Amino acid sequence: MSSCSLRARVIRALCISAAALAACVTAASPAGATAEVQFREQCGYLGWGEYRHCDGGTGSRVDLDVEDIWGNLYRYCVGPGTTDLQPVIRWRVTGAWWNGGVGCIPGFEGPA
After folding, report:
1. Where would one find the signal peptide in this protein (predicted)?
2. Is pLDDT at 96 greater than 70 in this prediction?
């Protein structure tokens, strides 16, 4: 057996394994899921005053610390999904993060 035919067999075996892996991953993915959709659905502060709370289907609500352009901190409770924090806070929102609180009532809670 020559080294060329051995190399061809190894490459063929690797290609078949890669194709089988791709088929398994595709079958395990939710219908219509793509890398682009998953990228758009990131969790946390999205910019422009929007925050996405990914709860994994539990329906949980979490407390956030929200920072404006002047460094002032506010408390805001959000439920699952995307929440626009900007309309309630007077100055431009520059960041938001979970502060550890859970089970709050959704909405603006005031200065931190």
Report:
1. 1-22
2. yes
